[in-house]
Design a protein that fits this description.
The structure is a homotetramer of 336-residue chains.
Chain A (H helix, E strand, L loop, with lengths): L1 E4 L5 H13 L3 E6 L4 E6 L7 H4 L4 E5 L19 E2 L5 E2 L5 E5 L6 H13 L4 E3 L16 H14 L3 E5 L3 H7 L5 E4 L7 H7 L5 E5 L6 H13 L5 E5 L17 H8 L4 E3 L1 H5 L5 H11 L3 E5 L17 H19 L2
Parallel strand pairs in A: 7-8, 7-14, 8-9, 9-10, 10-11, 11-12, 12-13, 13-14
Antiparallel strand pairs in A: 1-3, 1-4, 2-3, 5-6
Helix pairs in contact in A: 3-4, 6-7, 10-11
Chain lengths: 336, 336, 336, 336
């Protein structure tokens, strides 16, 4: 059960509402986000909703049968639009495109990539400065200094930044330079990180776990939302299966299923989803047809020289062509 | 190594060629299909290809590094087109659509479905008369009589038939009434069935195994081809994974990967691939974007009354709308 | 619902019983096995069991809530013992050991293997004469002649034979020379093969599908049982997962779960289950601890020269040592 | 390449060694653990090992072809023994048993569990005070206060504590009260957490990821070791597969494979591995046969009243019986 409270509800009224819900046998969690105050009631007993409805200070009451509550479409039918400022949106009825290299490598690379984005009307740049690597001896990214450098150039051209945060202690230093905090596939169930990202007023994009279920992804989003942050995006990036002809198995089924279950925007990552450069473009288009609100893919001036993920990275020419085609595809599916 | 022989090669020349290849340490399999005679040489020793090239009766020689040979794109760059007669093709640059019910249920249902196909310009009807069922107590299909009835109406309207064959003994009785023999996901590695289907002059569509790899699917096709039948179609229909929010995980990655590896046409089955009626249409469109030559999906006048698979079956109105949209999508991707 | 009928029930009484059950809204399947006559009623309506109980000709009535019926432990609490003749049993409270090569290769190999079995008190020899191979160009086994040769030597030493049957047409020729028909992992859901194996009076061992569920394995057994053959054994041989450090993932969880669900004996195949020679022995012992009634593993005089599966095959010395240790392990778990 | 340095190597000699290695084209990581100083060289160029061998200050040089280095058995053939103090060991040739509840619930429960351990000669108690929960609305554990309470009773009875740490900030407060830090299956690739655990002088037990590979588990251990902590234990706890008859698929194949690849002790968790109370005991025994150095399982005075995981928790009577049987099984396999 989700109870939306009036903004200026009196403390006394608030306590009264909580008392009534608890008396019904519900466990109450108080949630305050950028947008609204909520009470989440977890319980199963049937009751007469009018008992609650006439309490002072209540805006609205929603019964939600899903285990996740705040991210469910059952109470919020209208899709969430993420506003990144400067008229850059995700989920507003236009295709959101995010591209850039796997790793931020240096000034030259940043500049060239941003030029490519600007030329093609792309507003959001991806890139890693903290890289999760399975071996401790691999390149782990340029860190905060790389991010600052990147931010400087990006802002000067009106480009927004999406980049991965790996741990709680990185949030604060990254905050001024990040538009979208990306939670990587290995951290989808790093609940402490999710809790802390609930406290910032920046967008958060949660990637599906390496073998995460759709349901777990929604619960991870519920962590962030219930900790106070409604600016959430979910990302399908492929799951781990027995099939080894592709890096991951891009589960595009997840797109229409998520669109039915949640009001949050859905982004597809075909680069990690298939892991083969030649096949990134068709999978990006397939993602759009499946219903994605946005596509995130890897591009680099010279993929064969990229520090990481070169095998699944488009060059700028391929990226430009894909970008054009994606718009046509999005157009086609929007008229449906 | 694939050696294409001249049609009228003299028996003596043929034996000479075989002798030379075997002398090179290769194991030889003789293949005679509807289209051509081949010798397949399996071995690894390097040799001077001119030793072979000047033998009498040889049309062409191809080295193929893949484990599968005849279905590989490495020797046959031009895509295979399946000609079903009456100007019905698969893989000829137009989208091939196959639709119909899960199970053939009776005359009334056959007629209504065929009317639906004719109205929408669809040329191939799917339907099961032999149903593989995990429980022995479930409905197992109308059998050969159902097929005959279906064939009568289909032919009168110029509609082609794709239907599942479950065992060797069914092939002969089904032969006159079947245009495409479908090998189901549980039979992808029923090698005896594949061997026998290699001996008929009808198209064969092999579905990917329930947890079959892309490589295994190609090897299964190699069975049919090397037994004499080149009229092959491959079908992605979803794989089994840990994710239970959908019936299967439709692995659209398989489409561009298969298109790169083989010259055979690829069909996508979004009905089994996601298993949720509301989401069949977006996944069909996604399949087209991924590069499919055809789409097979389930439709029924009244899905809720279908003998089987009603939960993933479109009604005729949904089917007509999807059919129209699929053509636009195929158009968009063809211009790419 | 399972209704056991009296052996000499009068046709009239039989018809009366069927009529009553059908009147209750149940679909009836008549089953006649080597041991008993049954009626299987599939339906859900609640009814007063006394309505049935006083019908003439009924031995017993069992409600079975599982979807599979005859293989369920819910009606037959006592475990099934397979009697292969000559005092060779499976499931009788002693560990059943089956060993031998992957493929039967010839007289010499047969003799030496049988000598090894005799020396170690092993009564059942495994070996393939029909080999399912993913490539059509691989060795497919010695066929029926190999089986006859093998049978001759085996019988002279009192050894029983377990070997794979791949298709319906092989059953009849194999019948006189086979003690246990093995259904391979690729044929677990070859329902026509299962149906036909229901008609023979020989034991049948069904391997779990390559990615088959425990539930599907039980349903496959139900096919054979309901077609008339109670002499059934189930075999866990590893499933396909993302993990590639082993050939398959031996799912020993399946052993206690199956033992709880069915009265049929359970055999574990550690050779295919892990696919690494050095690790076959510990996994065999683990299988026994998990509750297996028998172990099937591959052995060969010279594993490195075996036609197939050499990488997972024990030599005779390793086999002898394992065999001894397995008996100790079985002893330990039997006293539990 | 691993270079073990002399304890009192002169700074100058150390720099010389590093210079030589880097000159060979190797990237050097300096590692200082509780036990030794190492240099890890990552590179591929072949070189004459004598060029290094005669440098001052070098104890030993090992080439290690695995991607992970310090945890590999290729350089350290003798198995690692974890010494927890008070003569409690893991990996010393006796079975290490860890048991206790899923969640620490309070004083009464702690006392009773410790009594049960003492009575049965079990030295290590498991229990969670920080609980990773997929829903933010679930019970998340008693936290540090629960740990302190637990520690007080445990120490008074000589019992060691293994408990999960979920994030970096918990390490310091937990340190005085924890004998083994457990890294849970959702944190196996939380690289920052692993880095930090490399800095403490307490044992760390890393659970395999929910769908983690064996290789990833070894790399995660390499993180901790290369950050300075050699006191490492690996735990197989089941992986996620398509099979839903059990909570997870306990991959006992991993045990002999890990024992061959690494010198670290291996523990098996049958409670999470199968998730069904009745079947925990056979899977524990199976784990021992597979080669485990220890078993961790859940026990509770009244499993049906446990805050969490009751369905897979043994009561004290079952636990005592299992403990006795495990010793016999370990004995049997040790004599092998």
């Amino acid at each position: 059960m989700i109870i939306q409270l009036e903004d200026k509800i009196k403390p006394n009224d608030r306590n009264n509402v909580i008392e009534v819900i608890e008396a019904l046998g519900y466990k109450v969690t108080e949630v305050k986000t950028q947008r609204c105050n909520y009470l989440i009631g977890i319980g199963k007993r049937e009751f007469d909703i009018r008992k609650l409805g006439n309490q002072a200070g209540i805006l609205d009451i929603h019964r939600v049968s899903d285990d996740y509550k705040l991210v469910s479409k059952k109470w919020k039918v209208k899709n969430t639009v993420i506003d990144l400022g400067d008229e850059v949106y995700i989920g507003n009825g236009e295709l959101a495109v995010m591209t850039g290299p796997c790793s931020i490598e240096g000034e030259e690379q940043i500049k060239k990539t941003i030029d490519h984005l600007v030329e093609n009307g792309i507003k959001i740049m991806r890139g890693g400065v903290y890289k999760p690597r399975s071996s401790p001896y691999s390149f782990r990214g340029l860190g905060i200094d790389g991010l600052k450098l990147w931010y400087e150039y990006a802002r000067s051209k009106g480009i927004k930044i999406v980049t991965e945060v790996m741990q709680v202690s990185q949030i604060e230093p990254m905050l001024p330079y990040t538009d979208i905090f990306q939670v990587g596939a290995r951290n989808t169930q790093n609940f402490n990180l999710l809790d802390e990202l609930g406290k910032v007023d920046k967008a958060v994009m949660i990637k599906r776990g390496i073998s995460g279920t759709i349901d777990e992804l929604l619960h991870s989003a519920e962590y962030v939302f219930s900790a106070g942050n409604e600016k959430l995006i979910l990302c399908e990036r492929g799951i781990r299966t027995y099939e080894k002809a592709s890096r991951n198995t891009l589960d595009l089924n997840a797109v229409p299923i998520l669109k039915e279950k949640t009001h949050l925007p859905i982004v597809v990552d075909p680069s990690h989803g298939i892991g083969i450069r030649n096949h990134v473009a068709p999978m990006a288009l397939a993602g759009i047809m499946a219903g994605a609100d946005g596509i995130i893919y890897e591009t680099h001036e010279k993929p064969e020289e990229a520090y990481s993920d070169g095998q699944q990275t488009l060059d700028f020419k391929e990226s430009a062509a894909l970008n054009k085609k994606m718009k046509e595809a999005y157009q086609l599916v929007s008229n449906w």
